[in-house]
Amino acid sequence: MTEQIRVRFAPSPTGMLHIGNVRTAFITWLFAQANKGYFLLRIDDTDLERSKPEYEAAIYESLTWLGMSWDELAHQSKRLDRYAEVIEKLKADGRLYACYETPEELSLKRKSQLSQGMPPIYDRGALKLTAEQIAKYEAEGRKPHWRFLMKDEPIIWQDLIRGEVRFEGKDISDPVLIREDGSPLYHLCSVIDDADFGMTHIIRGEDHVSNTAAHLQMFDAIGFNRPQLAHLPLLSDPEGGKLSKRLGALSIIQLRDEVGLEPLSICSLLARLGTSDPIESFASHAPLIESFDISKFGRGTPKFDQEELLRLNSKLIHELDYSAAKIRLAQIGLEEVTEDFWNVVRPNLEKITDIKDWWTVANGPVTPVVNDNEFAAKAIELMPPAPWTPETWKEWTGAIKAETGRKGKELFMPLRQALTGMDHGPELGDLLPLIGPEKAKARLSKQAA
């Protein structure tokens, strides 16, 4: 029987979720869905000082809004006894050793190594300490931090994205796993959790590749099978630089509330970015799950373009039928929008909230801009009778043109400014029937309506 695929997303509640970390979450979730696997949401909250309840709540809200769900929820802060148990085993096995250097002493060591052209790898000076030296340090009040003893052997894995990855144990500095206050660091907690929860695959950013080399030796030391690994290249901006400004720096909550994006525009982009599959807008997760294959992701740096995200959002809105739109319209307080109105303005929307402007244009109050009273009066005089249809605008402007000799911008702009109070907007042929003769006449007469 084939082993069930088990994956996790493990955010720290020390800030808001952004595009970069949500990309990892969504790809991991798609991997689980496509393989009928198990998806764990693990809150890495051992940093008690920086972890905040509001950030944890925002993690749940962001993932749920994007349409993701999880099979199990875990908190590292509730597993401290388990970490302590494994720590004692690693100490007993000689794989964790106490170090007494201060941060200043370690900094001097690194500077000395670098000045001699040597890599800044910890020299394992702590292993050479005598019992007397250790007693002296402890008498001074020094508390040890604890490092993991790396074995001098090759560390090789077949990465699902990067192919074969190889490190030498001797080239990796023994990582600090326990702070001076006795609290375990991320690396050890993460490995123990991945082992205990039976993770078969770990998907994360390529900035963790060197960490992974040490983690694999930790899996061996604890006595668990190594998971398969996939390291995603980090996103860049359109010019290939660090993703840091404008939409790239906004949290998922801000992209929802301040920018006004639809969740599936974000999902559509993140599922395909970095693959050879075309980036298209999808109205559900189903086709994204069906077409998902982790091997489609390449090693090249994907470029995140906010304009592409807005384009996908526009396309989603343009293809949104009224029955689906009603739910979104109710969320922004526009339950009264009719199907006819939606179908007319939908092609002019980039975001669902844009409809508020057109609703005001159609229903008022609009402050008309009328600079030529004589022209406005003539337009009223030539106004076609009700009922108005999409052909009314052409009929009306044709009559005004014949009567006044005006054409082009001189004809259309004064009418648009009077009827909508703006000098841009959707086709008036579509909008005019929604405004209606009564409001049109009032606006041309300089009355807000």
Amino- and carboxy-terminal Cα gap: 71 Å
Q: What is the arithmetic mean of pLDDT?
A: 93
Number of strands: 10
Helix/strand/pairing class, anyone?
Answer: mainly alpha
Over the alpha carbons, how many angstroms does the gyration radius reach? 31 Å
CATH class of the domain at 6-80 and 185-232: Alpha Beta
CATH superfamily of the domain at 6-80 and 185-232: HUPs
Q: What is the number of helical segments per DSSP (H or I, 4+ residues)? A: 18
- Poorly predicted ranges (pLDDT <50, ≥5 residues)? none
The largest β sheet comes out as: 3 strands, parallel
* Tertiary shape: elongated
Descriptive report:
32% of the residues are buried. Among the domains are: 6-80 and 185-232, 3-Layer(aba) Sandwich (Rossmann fold), CATH 3.40.50.620; 324-363; 373-444, Arc Repressor Mutant, subunit A (Orthogonal Bundle). It has a three-stranded parallel sheet with strand order 1-2-3. A three-stranded antiparallel sheet has the order 4-5-8. It has a two-stranded antiparallel ribbon with strand order 6-7. It has helices spanning 19-34, 53-65, 80-92, 103-115, 131-139, 186-196, 209-222, 252-259, 263-272, 286-290, 306-318, 322-331, 339-345, 355-363, 373-381, 392-404, 409-420, 428-444, and strands at residues 6-9, 38-43, 72-75, 96-99, 145-148, 154-159, 163-168, 176-178, 201-205, 228-232. The protein is elongated and about 105 Å long. By secondary structure, it is mainly alpha-helical. α6 (186-196) crosses α7, α9 (263-272) packs across α11 and α17 packs across α18 (428-444). A hairpin with a 3-residue loop joins β6 (154-159) and β7 (163-168).
